[in-house]
Amino acid sequence: MNALKLLWIDLETTGTDPYKNGICQMSGILDFNGEEIDRFNYNICPFPECEYTAEALKVNRLTEDQIRTFQPESEVFIQLNDKLKSHIQAYSKTDRYFIAGYNISFDKEFLFKFFNDRNKGILQFLVWGNPIDVMTLASQRLILDRPNLKNFQLTTVAKYMGIEVDESRLHDAMYDIELTRQLYYLILKREFRQDEAKFNLIQSLQTAQVNPVKEETAKRIIKYIDDVLDFGKYRNRTIAEVLSKDPQYIIWIDKNVARLTIEQSIIDKAQDAIDLQNINKKPNHIQYNNDTYLDDQIDSNPGLMSEGYDYTF
């Protein structure tokens, strides 16, 4: 199976019309199966007839004079074209990039105009025609939460999903695309986890119907975050406190303590907290460390385990 090859890209422009305005910054990350293999960041001097809008200059915190000192777009085209072709079988019908970004239709239109002005049609041999728009994915993920968001801009959505945002770096194309990529993998990870949970639930129900199990001892059900644990190193602590301090503990007791049943909503909260911790530490990599859990005993899975993301479709 071919690798999933993503061309993450974000542009800063001198306006919103690709036929009148130009690109002044182009940043991107080449991502194969969740792993960054290359990146680029070009400050660009657009074509001579380019028009500059006051609003765009304010957002980009640049002046026309500054932009005119940047690298000519004709040089950037050659460098970017060579870079893109170096990581795939150029002009292949099966080996191409998916363009990916946030509200990607805007960037895609400028990008195709940028390429077509120099070599008409070349980009269509390097990328698939259907881009990946993280804004659309986030819209589906947050469909019930939309009334709680003041807008649906990248930074607003990222913060709402729990991602830490560096305000000082906003409207820098490279930072915007890093943030977009981080948001994409967070959404994917949560969606995949939900699908897995649904599958496991269906499997358990089917098994129960075929081989019903008689419980001789009633299980305690933990439903709420203000429920209190009555054992282990977090004895007399609420679930909310444990989620804040050690969310991995919730996952561990769910898998290892037979007399407890934890509501799926609490497990989801614990896993969300773990996801954010790992994304902030090192994207695309999860670590489980040794820990002492019940009654000061070492957990049943000592050592360091790691699993890399694999989003091969």
Describe this structure in words.
- There is one protein chain.
- With 313 residues, the protein is an alpha/beta fold.
- The chain folds into two domains: 5-184, Ribonuclease H-like superfamily/Ribonuclease H (Nucleotidyltransferase, domain 5), CATH 3.30.420; 215-308, no CATH class.
- Helices cover 41% and strands 17% of the residues.
- The chain contains ten helices and ten strands.
- It has helices at residues 54-60, 64-68, 73-86, 104-116, 134-141, 154-160, 173-210, 239-245, 247-256, 264-281, and strands spanning 5-13, 23-32, 35-45, 71-72, 98-101, 132-133, 220-222, 260-262, 285-288, 305-308.
- The longest helix is centred in the middle third of the chain and has 38 residues, at 173-210.
- Residues 208-217 and 283-313 have low confidence and may be disordered.
Largest sheet: 6 strands, mixed
Name the shape in a single word: elongated
* Poorly predicted runs of 5 or more residues: 208-217, 283-313
Which H/E pattern describes the elements? EEEHHEHEHEHHHEHHEHEE
CATH homologous superfamily of the largest domain - what is it?
Answer: Ribonuclease H-like superfamily/Ribonuclease H
Q: Please state the structural category.
A: alpha/beta
Number of strands: 10
CATH architecture identity of the largest domain: 2-Layer Sandwich
**Distance between the amino and carboxyl termini:** 8 Å
Radius of gyration: 24 Å
Question: How much of the sequence is in beta strands?
Answer: 15-25%
Q: What kind of assembly state do the chains in view correspond to?
A: single chain
Main sheet: strand order: 4-3-2-1-5-6
CATH class of the largest domain: Alpha Beta
GO molecular function: 3'-5' exonuclease activity; DNA-directed DNA polymerase activity; nucleic acid binding
Keywords: Exonuclease, Hydrolase, Nuclease, Nucleotidyltransferase, Transferase
InterPro entries: ExoX-like_C, Ribonucl_H, RNaseH-like_sf, RNaseH_sf
Organism: termite gut metagenome
